[in-house]
Design goal:
With 312 residues, the protein is of the alpha/beta class. The chain has a domain at 3-164 and 194-224 and 277-293: Rossmann fold (3-Layer(aba) Sandwich). Helices cover 43% and strands 17% of the residues. A 7-stranded parallel sheet has the order 3-2-1-4-5-6-10, sandwiched between helices. Strands 7-9-11 form a 3-stranded mixed sheet. The protein has a two-stranded parallel sheet with strand order 8-12. The protein is globular and about 55 Å long. The two termini are 36 Å apart. This is Nucleoside-diphosphate-sugar epimerase.
């Protein structure tokens, strides 16, 4: 791969993809709406080309993709806009990939799997989503597979990591670093899975370099599971934070949702805090090799350090 286009380049996984690709010597077109964040991401690296654009304008996508080999789709849009805008977004990206004859790697979540009934799941797990957003994700997957574009779909659990500011754990970390009231979403005794964004980027880039990866779905798990209590303990050890980390319950989300549209949309996804979906990565390791799995102790410490440094 000589040159790649990363859509959503200033997001948590998008920025990690840009850095991973550039670290491998690949030229990268970093595409997003915020030019200031793009320039900050590209600072001091001649391999990163900034492209300020709108993914809902197909001409912007076609221009950005004019001389690249691969597209990485890591765009994230607010929940309230999913129903109307996600199909339009996917259609624009697929048409761009088709016109430019490019391979496409899609960053996906676990919503389309629906409930997993407690057992770790592989890629053959039936997709029977019971939520609106899970059904939308399955619709987008179907669009991609029927498009004729060489596409791989990578399922990721919730993220955390440097520049992953719009995630549940990073909100918690930010409050701790500012010595504010910190809150963990869900029962702190339930073990969940989280993915360190640099690990996710490395795994996805490795996948995208293998021709046999296209036309398939892939699970990219985190470094095992961890409880909220264990996360709180690590955070306190690393920062000296001595306040109680409180729990955000489903009823709290429901109440806030009366006034906040985002929280109202989030409510249906709360089940993931009560019935975690855990991914199996056997298929990846069979075909590609060992999954990158940074231990939570190391990943959380590095994330806190990066966040603290960025505030200075």
């Amino acid at each position: 791969m000589k040159k790649a286009l990363v859509l959503g380049a200033t997001g948590g996984i998008g920025s990690a993809l840009v850095k991973e690709l550039a670290d491998r010597g690949t030229q990268v077109v970093a595409f997003a709406r915020n030019k200031g964040k793009l320039e900050q991401l590209a600072q001091g690296n001649n391999l990163i080309q900034v492209f300020k654009g709108d993914v809902f304008e197909k001409e912007d996508l076609l221009t950005a993709a004019a001389d690249v080999d691969h597209i990485y789709h890591s765009v994230n849009i607010p929940y309230p806009e999913w129903e109307q805008k996600q199909p339009l977004l996917m259609n624009n990206i697929l048409e761009t990939a088709k016109q430019r004859q490019l391979k496409l790697a899609i960053v996906d979540n676990i919503y389309a799997y629906g409930r997993a009934n407690g057992a770790p799941i592989d890629e053959e797990h039936p997709k029977q989503p019971h939520t609106k957003k899970g059904k939308i994700r399955l619709q987008l997957e179907t669009m991609a597979k029927q498009s004729g574009v060489p596409v791989l779909i990578a399922h990721f659990p919730d993220f955390y990591g440097p520049d992953a500011g719009n995630t549940l754990l990073n909100y918690l970390f930010d409050a701790v670093l500012k010595n504010k009231k910190a809150m963990y979403v869900g029962d702190q005794k339930i073990a969940r899975e989280y993915l360190y964004t640099p690990d996710g980027a490395k795994a996805l880039v490795d996948l995208s370099l293998h021709d046999q990866a296209y036309g398939q779905n892939w699970n990219i798990p985190g470094a095992g599971t961890i409880t909220g209590e264990e996360i709180a303990k690590l955070v306190k050890e690393y920062t000296g934070y001595n306040r109680k980390i409180t729990t955000v319950t489903k009823n709290m989300i429901r109440f806030v949702g009366l006034f906040d549209r985002f929280m109202r949309e989030y409510l249906e996804m709360y089940y993931l805090n009560e019935e975690p979906v855990i991914l199996k990565g056997d298929k990846y390791e069979q075909y590609i090799g060992k999954l990158p799995r940074t231990p939570y102790q190391e990943g959380i410490k590095e994330t806190l350090k990066e966040m603290e440094d960025s505030e200075r």
